[in-house]
Amino acid sequence: MNTLKAEKRSMDVKAKKLRREGYVVGNVFGREIEGSIPVKMPRGEVEKFLKVDGKGSQIMLDIEGTQYDVLIKDIAYNPIAGGIDEIDFQALVSNEMVHSVAEMVFENHEKILSGVFQVDLEEIAYKAYPSAIVDKVRIDVGDMKVGDVIRVKDLPLAADKDVHITTDLEAVVASVVAVHNVPEAEEETEEAEAETK
């Protein structure tokens, strides 16, 4: 498990000022934390960290020497500045289920030669105890053919008794559809309509 260092943040200093000084702000909340702990982290460290871990990842947060087992609950990006504004962390309690999401990672989709590979779900929502948290679900889709569909219930995560999936089990995660040449079809319809007039 990776560790990210953070410092407690004084609420007297505005988040905007801290961001200008090169920090990412955040909050740590959880059942055993009264209110929340406002934190700040050096932007460079956060960006390096997020190359490996993302939303839904379980990490160790070191706040001035105190270790917290946390879940990265939310990441707020600033599209204008092109950086990260804020990260929220949920402190985990071993006997308490938490809501989280797992990112779908489709492997070998470039091997699909017939049809078009379509992704319908980018992440799956679930509840689990800290020991069963996953941040990525990897699926090898290289053997998929036109007409093949992967549903949430088909994922290995759905078979894990320690994980309670909250996304609809019948929801389509990915599929391979036949290639349709749409413009020609539209022209034929227009011609047919012209003939009937």
Indicate the radius of gyration in whole angstroms. 23 Å
How many domains? 2
- Listing every helix as H and every strand as E from the N terminus to the C terminus, the arrangement reads EHEEHEEEEEEEEHEEH
Low-confidence stretches: 184-189
Count of alpha and pi helical runs: 4
Mean pLDDT: 87
Q: What is the name of the CATH class of the largest domain?
A: Mainly Beta
Strand arrangement within the widest β-sheet reads: 1-3-2-6-5-4
Shape descriptor reads globular
State which percent range the strand residues make up.
35-45%
Q: How many strand elements?
A: 13
Classification by helices and strands? alpha+beta
Q: What CATH architecture of the largest domain do you see?
A: Beta Barrel
Topology-level CATH name of the largest domain: Ribosomal Protein L25, Chain P
Describe the structure.
- By secondary structure, the protein is an alpha+beta fold.
- The protein has 2 domains: 3-92, Ribosomal Protein L25, Chain P (Beta Barrel); 99-182, Ribosomal protein L25, C-terminal domain (RNA Polymerase Alpha Subunit, Chain A, domain 2, Beta Complex).
- The chain contains 4 helices and 13 strands.
- The strands form 3 sheets. The protein has a 6-stranded mixed β-barrel with strand order 1-3-2-6-5-4. It has a 4-stranded mixed beta sheet with strand order 10-7-9-12.
- Strand 2 and strand 3 form a beta hairpin.
Notable traits:
197 residues; alpha+beta; RNA Polymerase Alpha Subunit, Chain A, domain 2; four-stranded mixed β-sheet; 17% helix; globular; Ribosomal_uL5_bac-type; RNA-binding; rRNA-binding; Ribosomal_bL25/Gln-tRNA_synth; ribosomal protein
